[in-house]
Structure formats: C-alpha cells, structure tokens
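To close the section, here is one more complete example, presented without commentary so you can practise reading it yourself. The ligand is zinc ion.
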Amino acid sequence: AAGAVGAIVYNNVPGPVNGTLGDPAAGKIPTGGITQADGQALAAKPGASVTLDLRAFQEARTSYNVIAETKTGRKDNVVMLGSHLDSVTEGPGINDNGSGSAALLETALQLGSKPKANNAVRFGWWSAEEFGLVGSTYYVNSLTFEQQLDIALYYNYDMIASPNTGYFAYDGDNSDGVGAGAGPYGSGELEKTLVDYLQNGKGVPVEGTDFTGRSDYGQFIAVGIPAGGLFTGAEGVKTAAQAAKWGGSANVPYDKCYHQKCDNLGNIDRVALDRNSDAVAWALGVYATSTENING
Ligand code: PHE
Ligand code: ZN
Ligand code: ZN
Ligand code: ZN
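Output:
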C-alpha cells in the first residue's frame, strides 16, 4: 500500500521512473498532504509543486497461481511443470509467456484423456513472475519440507516460441562449462531428456543455457528440487553460427519484441511452439512413467 493521502494512487507504474505529479493534483500537493510509503508525511506544504518517484505509488495487489494435479499417480513422486501466466505491463506477453502457458495447458488437456500414469503430474501457472518470481517463490515456500521432497522434479517453460528462435535447454550438467551452470540442483538428466527428443527425434540442434535465476525455477533449485526446461531466447542476439544451423537472422535478437507492445500473436514462431510443445509432453511422459534416471 502506498499510503498516499489525497487520492493520488498511480497504478501499474512500470518501473524506476521519476515523474512530475500530474492529475489529479496538477503537480501540487493536495490539501491532505501526502503520506509516504514509510508512513512519514512528505515534508512539503499542501499546494507546493512536487516531483515524486512514482514507484512509491504502486498499488499492493494479491495475485494467484493456478495449480492443477492429476487425481491419480504417486503423490510422493510428483512430476511438476510450470509456466508464468503474467506479462509485463508494456505488452500482451504472447511469447513471454503465453507460449509456455499454452504448451502446458494443451499438455494437461491431452494428458487428461490418457490412461493413468505411475506418478502424479502437477501443473503450476505462476503469477507475478515479472515482479520478481513472486508466485513460484511463494508456492515453493508455502510447502512443508515433506511436500517439497514429494516433488521429484520441476520443468520450467518460459518463452518457448521466440520468432528468431534459439533452441535452448537449461544447462543442468554445465556441459558448456560457461557461467555458473546449474549449481548443485540443476539436472543433467532433465536436460538430456529434452535434448534427446529435440535433437535425435526431430533433428533440431539444442544448446545449453545457464540457470541465471531469471525465471521460476529459482526457488525449486534453491530448496533442492532438480530442475530443467526450455527457452528460445529473449533480448539476446542470434549469432551467425546459430543462424546457420537454426535459420532466422544473425545479429538480431531472438525476440525483438521482448517486453514490448509488439509481443502479440504475430510474435510467435509456430514451428518452434509445435516442436517445443511436443518436447514438453514427451518429457512429462517419460517422468510420469518413471523418475528412475534422475533418482539414481
Ligand atoms: N524470465 C524472463 C522473463 O520473463 C525471460 C527469461 C527466461 C530470460 C529464461 C532468461 C532465461 O522476462
Ligand atoms: Zn518477461
Ligand atoms: Zn517470462
Ligand atoms: Zn548441458
């Protein structure tokens, strides 16, 4: 809550901007004065002109994750898949992350008509990822230690149909030797299952991408749950070598509409969405049947 007195409430202020206060106070401090977020009165008289850091006027809101789980299968060996459902305020968020959310939804619908699997399957559509992984972090922390142990693995799907597609799987075994790699709990096996399917099954070469902490796997890894996932690139730029093997344009971002208004229905590579959605379903099928290869 901003604690603003005088009905000045700015919603959805995008970020670190300093702005001059406009309507409804026309740049002047209202009669009631202004109470700051820390509860202090603003040390300026009503009627004075003022410049405010509008971040202080963001509204506190409650957001909701959507969790769905099969009724059948082992509840103590859950296969979990997640995608964030929210977007930034600047754009509609179709590639980021309608793509991952839709892949999970279709996978859940298809799974629903199949005979029961050995392990329970749980889907998480996360809220407020763009505000700092809020929904997924809350979810993991809301579980007891036992409930965390019951999750055998977590697959994350955030941006899986970027128009200038890169085919990346989170580098669980740090095989490229670049960056921090997975830390102790990324999983080479989870990576391998996706890579095998796309590379050997579909002939699509896959590169590793580091666990940078930029998506919802963060808290799963932090509590020791093996994680993996797919990613087709955001603001990063495709190299000439990548364009040669994947097609698309070198020296252009994987998603030139990342976090922008143009992240609309035109901002999807449907071939990538199709291939990656198949990989989502395949990996789910593998681990819903057995998690032996990750449990040793
Ligand atoms: N999580 C980022 C976002 O939603 C996208 C991203 C995913 C970036 C994975 C890097 C790696 O904006
Ligand atoms: Zn985003
Ligand atoms: Zn995202
Ligand atoms: Zn790897």
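Once you have examined the tokens, check your reading against these statements. Residues 171-173, 175, 191, 208 surround zinc ion (ligand 4) (CB under 6 Å). The first strand starts at residue 18 and ends at 20.
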